[in-house]
Give the backbone structure.
Amino acid sequence: MTLLRPTIKLLAAGFTLLSGCSLAPKYQRPAAPVAATYPLDASTASTPAAVPAADLAWQQFFGDARLRGIIQLALENNRDLRVAALNVERVRAIYGIQRSVLIPSLDATGDAVRQRTPATLSPTGQPVTGSVYEVGLQIPSYEIDFFGRVMSLRNQVLHQYLATEEARRSAQIALISAVARQYLAALAADEQLAVARQTLRAAEQSYDLNQQSFEGGVTSELDLRTAEGQREAVRASVAALEQRAAQLANGLVLLVGSPLPTDLPAAGSLATQAIVEDLPPGLPADLLARRPDVRAAEEVLQAANANIGVARAAFFPSIKLTAFGGSASTELSGLFESGSGRWSFAPSITLPIFAGGRNKAQLDVAWIEQRIEIAQYEQAIQNAFREVADALAVRSIIGRTIAAQQARVNAARRRYELTQQRFDAGVDPYLTVLLAQQEQFAAEQSLIDARLARLANLTALYSALGGGWQNDTPTAQP
């Protein structure tokens, strides 16, 4: 007996070492197929104290209290985000199932068998009817993971679970960005509608004055019909903007997943939106850690890498153990009597010899799937790089665009005032007033579009840099 103990210890140590082996290739992160820096103008550089977007909670990025309330409702009620969260829970449960395979399971069993042996098969030449009762603890078929097959399967599911978690974070970023852009577009539509209605009132007043002048014989019918055409054109614009505002409101409700409550804070204007502008872009390499969609693609790549270990292990023997310990008796009353103990220990080994090339084909598939995931991972990096680069390009020039549009509005307003005065004095025809009014209307609409583009670009840059998946307390101030 003393000689067996060292042998048992050596066998146990050998099992431990062998069960830790893995045939999966060592994972190496592919090189990022993008430039080392963004094609960025120096004027867009951020201050050293600026907080990276991925570390900035969305409650801190958006300063509009109404927008924050709507985003919170969307995070609670949006169905796409709910499905993404449920997918995380589903894969987490699958991982728990796969992880449990590494540990032998223990079952309590109870069997009762009553059978009859005919005389032709009985050793005594007489028919025999007997019973066997058995109770005990059983270890079902347990695979000793000598070549890391079970470990690779567990790692594969683990990386799939982590990928779904990153996908849920990416879905949250996309939802917050979509809600913010929809909300800002709705504000822009309301402001453009207000400008159109104000222009319509001015057009109606001009039409009334022209009609009075025409009836008094002061102006021609041409001026009257020109004023009438302008009034109807602006009225059509009002109708179109009312339709657009209603559609944007409906789209916002769909994103939120529920009707907007009436107790939300009042909406602000585009000009008063408090959104963090100082977002440091960092380096493209930072996206590998800050973008959940890039991290999700890498987790899927690592899952494919682990699958190669599963395919490689199919070429090696599979060893399984089955054990039982308990009590057995021909009588139910004798199950727990002295001398009724029963045990069994049944190891088995399966060595693949000929499989018609199936194992080789499965290994080829695993390698090809890994190369596919490498390409998709690199594509995710390239998409992230372009989104950031595009947002930075807009940020570098949008200020000049807004300044130019504001100057255009000021000039158009002054032109309209001057042409109106010259028309009232009888110097110019009404056509000059009409052209000036059309220019002012178009300039004010374009200024609103430029302000919307600026805010939408900041939102896009925030999400492109990986911001939006972290939450803060609902009372956080920007």
Notes: Residues 1-18, 474-478 have pLDDT under 50 and may be disordered.
